[in-house]
Amino acid sequence: MRADAVARTDGSPVRAAMMIALALLLAAAGLSGVALSRLVAPADWPGLLADPAAADMSILLARQSLLPRIVVGLLAGAGLALAGVVFQNVLRNPLAEPATLGVSAGAQLALVVATLWFPSIADTLRAEGIAFLGALAAILLVAAIGWSRVLSPTRMIVAGVFVSLYAGAAAGVLVLFNQHYLTGVFLWGSGSLVQNGWDAAWTLSGRLALAAVCVVILGRPLALLVIGDEGAHALGVKVPAVRLAALALATALSASIVSAVGMIAFIGLAAPAIARAAGTRTLSAQFAAAPPIGAGLLCLTDQLVQLAPFAREIPTGAATALIGAPLLLWLLPRMRAASVPATQSVEGQARLARPVPMLVAGCAVAVLVISCALMLGRTPHGWSWFAGPELAEMLPWRWPRVLATFMAGGMLAAAGVLIQRTTSNPLGSPEILGISSGAALGLIVLLFLMPAPSPLWQLAATTAGAALAFAFILAVGARSGFAPDKLLLVGIAFGTMLSALAAVLMASGDPRMATLLGWMAGSTYAMTESRALVTALVGCLLLALLPLAARPLEILPLGVGVSHALGMRVNRTRTGLLLLTAGLTATATLTVGPLTFVGLLAPHMARLAGFQRPVAHLAASILAGASIMVAADWLGRSLIFPYQIPAGLFASFLAGPLFLFLLRRQS
């Protein structure tokens, strides 16, 4: 009876959400009519249903390309929104969607690998089949990582982010060395609704209808999960089985859409968020409201892309992100705090009784890595250990990169600790919060406004981008009491816009994109002595402030009430910590780019190794992050000499397996 009462009170928000969906659909229908009238005069529209053999070219184009494209856009948008609702409610996390669970990145990586090395398989399975296999492999890996907690919501989403970033890094390395061969892959990966017949529309309609039937069957058990696992189990729900079935359903639906139209960014995240912003609370209300919102949003965006002359070359998926992300940023301050389910923190192992010996061992490892980076390297004759005069000749080339990457890795790791502890969220990191993405967006805009900007202009642009991103984060946080999930949603929106812009620029073939990709991947090729010293000076000043954060980091996880009772001004303290985080992140991003995830990995590695108290956690994380980045830069320039892999990308491969091992060992 309680659930029925809640459903009855949810009528007005459902109507508000449906009005939003109706407005989007009507706008999409109007633009579709305009696009159709450009091909076929309205008086000749009845000819669209006539004998195909008697139709002229314009009617054939409308019948076999434009109309299927409209239908596929509606079906794909509705399906991604439906999958997003399932993912977010099953995992109790508003960040869960195909992108954050690795489905999209797995599909893209599979297509890149098949295109480069297995062209015969690519011809046999076609892009749809290869993408489906990649997406399926990614979600199976995510499930394998999170299985020890019986599909724990937090472990699943952390594993999904890990797999997504890891697959994205792998695809990024391949793209850097094969840009001319993979432009078509990026066009597909950015989401393309171009159709040549009705096959995709019929396929998607059947899969979406089957998914809707399954959702109806699973509706009541999924709704009962809202009251908690113990309460749902007491009411007879087999919680692990229901979660597994729902995840399988959402994964299959997402993979089907990705395999058909490529990676459509943001719909699976934005449509449920818009429905919640309208006030929908019950699961049934979200199932009713989110799919039409997603359908209208995707179809409307696609029609805008087709009608705008300057935007016709922009892939639809990227355009959806460019339009939808600002929409979500506008809606976030208006979202009720209760409309976003809270995330859970990741539990670590028992605290170390004596962390000092472990920290000493960490320092020894850092010294060893630095020594290897300075003295050991590849030459045309093989590996060589440099000493004496040879080392003196090589040091001017090597020590700036070692110093810069050491400081950048330490700053990213420290920023990750601050974010995760102040938000009590295991997904908190500089990359995901959005500060790194804001800096990158500033540089992208500058490069396409000025032909050859000076380093000073680049510094100003990245700083301005990071400052604007951080200012918006502060504005959203202040209105929501710094709700963790709202801050992360801001970061997801900024990151989505960055990925969309990168995809658009890569598809355009602009030669400046090669330089930009190198910086985004974490390249230190152009590091100079002066830049390294400036990075070290600013980094030391910021890191010296970390001891002042020890007490707040100890108290804030206890809750707002306890913090106030102990005399702490919570909002002011969080603002100070976020300012420190922004400074650390912006400085590191200027050095190694925005796409490393050392800020996510290093704090988790330190926590899972047993460092729980704030000071020890910060120290261990800084050592881990700095060592990872130095080792990544050293191995990246040595393993495939004379070619080099950017440090940011190589850090993903270096730290990923270790993070996976520690996550599997977590109690």
Shape: globular
Percentage of residues assigned to helices: over 70%
Number of domains: 2
Radius of gyration over alpha carbons?
A: 25 Å
Order of helices and strands: HHHHHHHHHHHHHHEEHHHHHHHHHHHHH
Q: How is the largest sheet built, in terms of strand order?
A: 1-2
Structure, explained:
With 667 residues, the chain is mostly helical. It has two domains: 2-331, ABC transporter involved in vitamin B12 uptake, BtuC (Orthogonal Bundle); 417-600 and 607-618, ABC transporter involved in vitamin B12 uptake, BtuC (Orthogonal Bundle). 74% of the residues lie in helices and 1% in strands. It has helices at residues 2-9, 11-39, 57-90, 103-117, 119-146, 153-177, 183-189, 199-224, 229-234, 239-261, 267-277, 283-307, 316-331, 355-375, 389-423, 430-433, 435-447, 455-480, 484-508, 512-520, 529-543, 550-555, 560-565, 570-592, 598-608, 614-638, 647-665; strands at 376-379, 382-385. It has a two-stranded antiparallel ribbon with strand order 1-2. Strand 1 (376-379) and strand 2 form a beta hairpin. The radius of gyration is 25 Å and the shape is globular. The model is unreliable at 1-9 and 337-349 (pLDDT under 50).
Give the helices and strands, then pairings.
Elements: H1 2-9, H2 11-39, H3 57-90, H4 103-117, H5 119-146, H6 153-177, H7 183-189, H8 199-224, H9 229-234, H10 239-261, H11 267-277, H12 283-307, H13 316-331, H14 355-375, E1 376-379, E2 382-385, H15 389-423, H16 430-433, H17 435-447, H18 455-480, H19 484-508, H20 512-520, H21 529-543, H22 550-555, H23 560-565, H24 570-592, H25 598-608, H26 614-638, H27 647-665
Antiparallel strand pairs: 1-2
Subcellular location: Cell membrane
Protein name: Iron complex transport system permease protein
Pfam families: FecCD
